[in-house]
Amino acid sequence: MTMKPKAEKYRIRKPAATADLTSQAETAVSASPQTETGAEIPDKQRIVQGQTNQQQSVPNDPILDAIRQEGLNARQLRTARRVAEKHGLPFASDFEAVKVLRDRGIDPFQRNNLMDMVTTKQDGKISLPQKITPSQVPAEISKETDMSPAERRALEVSQIQKDLGRRRRRNIFFLTLRLIAFILLPTFIAGYYYVFVASPMYSTKSSFQIIKSGGSSGGGAGGLRGMLAGTGFATTTEAIAVQTFLISKTAMIRLDEDAGFKQHFSAPNIDPIHQLEPNATNESAFKVYKKRLKIGFDPKEGMVNMEGITADPQTGVEFSNALITYGEEVVDGLSARSKENQVADAKKALDEAMEERRLAQESLIDLQSSTMLDPEAYAGSLRGQISSLEQQIVEKKIELDSLLDNLRPNKSRVDGVRSDIDRLNSARIEIEEKMQAPLKSGMTLAQLLARIQMAH
Q1: Is residue 21 within 8 Å of 142, Cβ to Cβ?
Q2: Do 52 and 184 belong together in one domain?
Q3: Secondary element (H or E) of residue 284
Q4: How confident is the model at residue 369 (pLDDT cuts 50, 70, 90)?
Q5: Which residue in 90, 12, 98 sits closest to 61, CA to CA?
Q6: Closest Cα to residue 306, out of 206, 239, 202?
């Protein structure tokens, strides 16, 4: 980022007389008078000659005094000096040059042709320049006009220093006014108030913790409460509810009815800033209540911190006890409502379970009456028969294997054992088909047993 340089600007105020003198001095110094031989005079000699000319023009001459009063400017004087030098007329100062030219009948300020030597006359009189209205430039150049550049520079520096000093004094003056208006005066007012007007106020601090009895609402929330039991997070909801109630207008109105909140802050010993009107409204009293009561909850420790400011420490203790009592009632109300909700939910769940049990029993009765009295016993007998047949089949297979182990087994006995195994297998298959065959109700025995188990 490139920033443009900024230079300070100073408004230097030059008096009109000083400015005119400086311009005249510059004009006088810038002129380059020549000697009689035509050579230019050096700067130092010009300054000395100017001073000499001024000193020589001091003698009192009425004609010269009249010329000085005409208010001729520096340019006119330079012109008269050049014309007098051109005509070779002797003169000691610029004003004498004007006088000598007028005595010879030459107008030193004629613009048509300065080289013209002929003088014009009107009515037998020499035409001389008319009197010029005096300008603001001083008629007589004082010694201060012919000053050197160093002196002029010193004069300008002194003017700048004076202007800077004036600005600095002005800035210091306004800075002093701001310090008085915004620092000293408020400090004086606050000090006077706290020393002579303010009444003493007392702060009553109290802390309490909300502890709930065992029991949870069940479900996922109950499991989470069980995990957070014993920590400050377990009672965060109740603490926030208590804090919200204690800073409400309802708590203020109840505190006023029980402990006289408005009456305490309307006492005459309280300063006018903290004092309530005798018949203050609830809105104005609630503003004071919010300023004087500060409540905060610390979730790390599970503590509710409360601070009350009153004009009397005993009254502050009474207000704190009353507010803590209100907080206990809020927590009790929340607990009672939670318990009521839990009991209502339990009753509803019990009623639903009883209704489901009744419906299951009715379904079981319908199933038993539609097929057989005890399907489970019937299925058990079939399973027993299948198990018995499978056991006999295993025994017959063992007997067959023992007969086949002989080198020359008895063919009739081997055929008889094989026939027994086939009959046993046929009986087992028949019983299994019987178990899978549909009953009168259209369900198989396995489906019937499943329905009965679901009904239980």
Answers
A1: yes
A2: no
A3: helix 282-292
A4: low
A5: 98
A6: 206
Q: What is the band of 8 on the pLDDT scale with cuts at 50, 70, 90?
A: low
Claim to verify: residue 213 and residue 329 sit in the same structural domain? yes
* Domain end among 166, 181, 197: 197
User: What's the residue count for the chain?
Assistant: 456
Query: What pLDDT was estimated at residue 403?
Result: 84
Q: Token pair of 201, please? A: 């106020």
CA distances to 176, 221, 331, 388, 389 from 341, rounded to whole Å, are: 72, 14, 15, 59, 61
359 within some domain: no
The radius of gyration of the chain from alpha carbons, rounded to an integer in Å, stands at 65
Using the predicted structure, report yes or no on whether residue 413 has a pLDDT greater than 90. no
Q: Is residue 157 part of a domain?
A: yes
Asked if residue 181 has pLDDT above 50, the reply is yes
Answer whether residue 303 shows pLDDT above 70. Answer: yes
pTM attached to this predicted model: 0.41
Q: Which amino acid is at 21?
A: L
Residues 183 and 235 in one domain: no
Neighbours of 437 (CB within 10 A): 9
Whole-angstrom CA distances from 381 to 328, 392, 393, 424, 426 are 68, 17, 18, 17, 18
Same-domain status, 337 and 323: yes
Q: How far apart are CA 413 and CA 241, in angstroms?
A: 94
Identity of residue 388 = S
Taking CB atoms within 8 Å and a gap of at least 24, the contacts of 241-246 are 241/330, 241/331, 241/334, 242/210, 242/304, 242/327, 242/330, 242/331, 243/295, 243/296, 243/297, 243/304, 245/326, 245/327, 245/330, 246/293, 246/295, 246/306, 246/323, 246/326, 246/327
The CATH number for 391's domain is 1.20.120
Q: Look at residue 38 in the predicted model and tell me its pLDDT.
A: 41
Q: In sequence order, what are the residues at sequence separation of 6 or more whose Cβ sits closer than 8 angstroms to the Cβ of residue 215?
A: 339, 342
Helices (H), 43-138: 43-56, 62-69, 74-87, 94-103
Domain housing 232 = 202-344
The structural domain count of the chain equals 4
Q: How far apart are CA 432 and CA 445, in angstroms?
A: 11
**For residue 33, what pLDDT is reported?**
43
Per-residue pLDDT at 247 exceeds 60: yes
